[in-house]
Amino acid sequence: MTFDRGHGGRFRFGQLLLMSAVVLCSSVVLAQDPNPPDTAPANADPQNAPNPPNPRQTGGEAQQQPQQPERHPQSIFPHPETTRWWLSGQINIITQGHGDFRTLYSGPNSLNPKGEIRGSRIFTLYTALRLTNSMDAVFDLEEASGNGISNSLGLAGYPNIDVVRTPGQGSPLSAAPYVARAIFRFVLPLSDECDDADVGPLGMFKSLPVKRLEFRAGKLALADFFDVNAVGSDSHFQFMNWTIVNNGAWDYAADTRGYTYAAMLEYDDRWWAIRFAEAMMPTIANGIALDGDLPRARGENLELELHPNIITQKPTQVRLLSYVNHANMGDYREAVDLFLAGKTPTPEVVATRQEGRVKYGFGINLEQQVSAHMRAFGRFGWNEGRHESFAYTEVNQTFSFGADYAGEQWHRQHDKIGLAFVINGISGDHQEYLKLGGLGFLLGDGTLTYSRENIFEGHYNAHFWRGIYGAIDLQHLENPGYNRDRGPVWVPAVRLHIEL
Known about the structure:
The two termini are 22 Å apart. Helix content is 9%, strand content 39%. It is built from five helices and 18 strands.
């Protein structure tokens, strides 16, 4: 949904703040325990963790979740774990906006300096089936609608990750439902010892061998299995910013909506795991069509996951990621050279695209249980910045850290508050390209006075009843699009999430 401008930026910005206050007040009104002793939750959290299960939490991470009392309602409807099949759904609605902000100039891909409010909605139908004791399958349908502020342009750390899936103005995306995931999995046991596993949207096994090989193939989101973080990966219950939910420098293979076709092999052990995936790249930067010619275009992803015992009874996760993309990519330096030689009217990275070019990068992902109710995380990412940003966002270096805290201290055991900060940067070639008037698929102010993009985000996620949650979120964006001639910008948001 898109909200009209109506009576001006300040009035609409005030409306959004009022909506945020309503959500917070509702949380206070519902401050009594939503599950009194004689009332069982609709479906207890199978992970015994302070979050509803996130499809991104898989493999070794599921084994390492801190053991805490079962306390979280899972969904509106019960989902028995004794059947061979799974059927559930979710609705995630985000309303977000900003007021007028300072700017010296604007370009074709700038964040709109006039106040605006926009909304997005994602509906997902999850299904899964256990085929045998070693094979299962996942099939999900999704529908996305709405739009993001400034039609998803003007920021590398964009404040609403759900917007990557919505058909905004000028987008080739359809508003019709689409297949999000269609995954086949085979598990080869390598030990007799087993650990409990999660029955849910991404798998139907109640237990898995401690040592095992897992093979997956089909349509999937690489971010469901790589760069996973229990504190900063879930836009349904946690943060919303693109570069906080994921590593912004990980230009992972995906279409516009974040999905691709891939094959993945994973080895899991008690204290470590390693996974590799080969995936299809989009035919053009941020495109919806995928290139099926793997010798010509592909994304290769490798991640080592470690579970060191650093603090007694406080799990630690360390994930080391590397990726190499092969695609028909442009070259920022070449685009600048052609412009300076007078061969193009502006720097045009599209005009320099060439098959067989390679973009590579690295990432570090840290996760630490700090206390019974507090968890912290951090990420670092880097990629070579000569070739164009192609699949995720326009970031060449990123560093983020944050934490969340459960609400027992104020008698809201199902609530969480979270704070995070991220710093994004781009390479010298990328800077020069934007400074001379070049356009990326997200950025382009016409010129650039470079400074790193600094983003702070805070959220409060409140549980209302069974699978119904609401959240207020506030982001402060400094130097939007790496341009200190624009901003800063405050972006408040409200979110309604329903687990069906």
